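Support request, please re-run this one:
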Amino acid sequence: MPSASLLPATSAGAQLCPSLARPLRRRCCRVKAASTAPPSNGIGIGRRAASLAGVAAWLATAAGRAEASPFDNYVKRKKLEPLEAYVPAVLLTQDQFRDLEKSLEFEKPKYDESRSLLRSGPASSLRVNIRAVAQYASSNGQGKAATDAVDECLRALEDLDSLLLKATRKDPSASVETMRSKIAVALGALDNLLQTVPSAVMDKGKAIADAYRTPSDGYYEEGNGAELDPSMKQLQDIL
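Re-run finished. Output below.
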């Protein structure tokens, strides 16, 4: 007895052979051929396009890393110094801003030099220092007041920097009065931030700042040197 076939048949009895595997192989071959075929419009264009695509992807990733500025989380990642090391740095920055304000009183202010004051000395590390002070304030339940003061100070300094830049380009909209008002806002915000510092720490911070300003005025006499020297070293590291 002939064995029954498992293949499907037509109404006339002809058996149909499955042909699914062959089209799949042809599709694979076509895909492989498309992926390895050289470009028709010139040698090496495909490789250059792939390279440019890779560079673009890397730049997009780098841009994402840049937008997440390391300064935003710097204080959280870095082990904090004692609070009394940041306080004198902020006080010295206030002195620097007052010097900047005085420089605007000249008949012909040198706006480029005034602008450089925002990026040199104690002011160069102000962002990190005031955020460190704010972090200490947060642990004492004064986080909102400290954060508001930090934000207000940084906004005023950004506006001041923009005004100074416009002034270097002879923009008449950048008036000295407006610049001085921005400095006043920044100084007031720093005062508000320092109000969150415990009085004992504030007194020590002022003494360190005074010693840094005038190291030969007797601050190291009668035992003060032994007390202030480690703090001075911490301050110099921060500055």
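The radius of gyration is 34 Å. The chain is about 65% helix and 0% strand.
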